[in-house]
Amino acid sequence: KLDAARGQGAGETVLVDRADPAAALAACKGRFDVVFDPLGGAFVPPGLAALDWNGRYLVTGFVAGQPAPFATNRALLKGIEIIGVR
Length: 86
Fold this sequence. Notes:
alpha/beta
């Protein structure tokens, strides 16, 4: 999927380890326009933090288990969109 994203023009991609998503995204804070999230769970807070202003967070599933609650003010403060994608 990373190769497909790069083939469609993604300038940068990151493969996140499910065991420690926060570590993989710690250096990515505010760098991405789009986050594709098939995991949910513990991935949500660092995934949202990785978004730049006006970014889009694409929710595509919950492989990691239950959907994670998050502070909705994050969407307002960063001007981001959280979009459910089927």
